[in-house]
Design brief:
The chain is of the alpha/beta class. The chain is 46% helix and 20% strand. The protein has one domain (10-255): Vaccinia Virus protein VP39 (Rossmann fold). It has helices at 10-24, 28-43, 58-66, 79-89, 131-144, 165-177, 180-198, 204-213, 225-234, and strands spanning 48-52, 71-76, 96-100, 117-123, 145-156, 239-246, 249-255.
């Protein structure tokens, strides 16, 4: 009798993902907690949420653990990280729905569960979007969120202009507070995670689709903070502002 195929340890992949992400952003957990504090203050403990650019579900699972009556639709276009997340987390008792969609692309909302949402959250994802896709995403969120719903984006949102004095000051402080060894460790952890995933037989089909879609992160410069604010106001968000900031590492808030 042939031996059974080895079942991947998806939870180990998720833990390794979190470790390499924390190497890049030591304030990651504090940023998550701050975002959830804002959600609770505005919406209470029962709500439907969108996790935009969810990766393997790091934000989604933390949100669902803190709010046992919440539901999340987790959206990502990369089949590799989505398969890792689904393998590690499943559906959390039916409260977590995984969605295959390309954020900001025409028609991406058709893949979502029916109905409106109370909150949309994103961390370390939307800076990859082109400006036209970012503008379309925010217009779509303006229609997807209920009146009084909120949007929170925890990300690197540069000062404007991106190469101005404040950006240079931010980079100087960051370089002095985070050693070169730590920065190298972050990139080393990122490369090691992807190298390990590529060796996983259960992910071969996902990597083929990843390459077909061109799902690797682009290298375009991140849109600055004022671009995000402009597009959100154009999408009829009433209140737009930064609720937490560590130089260019911010949480941007908007309310419908």
């Amino acid at each position: 009798m042939a031996p059974r195929p080895r079942r991947p340890d998806w939870k180990a992949y998720l833990r390794a993902w979190d470790r390499q992400q924390e190497a890049f952003n030591p304030t990651r957990e504090a940023r998550f907690s701050l975002m959830f504090d804002v959600v609770e203050a505005k919406l209470g403990s029962r709500f439907s949420a969108l996790d935009l650019g969810c990766g393997p579900g790091s934000l989604s699972i933390r949100l669902l653990r803190r709010f046992p009556r919440a539901r999340v639709a987790a959206v990502d276009y990369d089949p590799v990280v989505r398969q890792v997340g689904e393998g590690a987390l499943g559906t959390v008792g039916g409260r977590l729905t995984w969605v295959d969609a390309k954020l900001g692309a025409p028609g991406w909302t058709r893949a979502l569960p029916a109905g409106k949402f109370d909150v949309a959250l994103s961390t370390t994802a939307l800076h990859w979007l082109s400006r036209p896709d970012l503008a379309r995403l925010y217009r779509d969120l303006g229609r997807l969120l209920r009146h009084g719903g909120v949007f929170l984006n925890g990300d690197s949102l540069p000062f404007s202009p991106p190469n101005g004095p404040m950006s240079r000051l931010s980079r100087t402080v960051l370089e002095r507070s985070v050693s070169r060894r730590d920065r190298r460790a972050g990139w080393s952890g990122w490369r090691a995670w992807w190298a390990s995933a590529r060796r996983e037989p259960a992910l071969r089909a996902a990597f083929r689709e990843h390459r077909r879609r061109g799902a690797s992160h682009p290298t375009r410069p991140a849109s600055p903070l004022d671009v995000h604010e402009h597009y959100l106001r154009a999408a009829r968000f009433r209140t737009v502002g930064t609720v937490w900031q560590n130089f260019e590492n911010r949480v941007l808030y908007a309310e419908r």
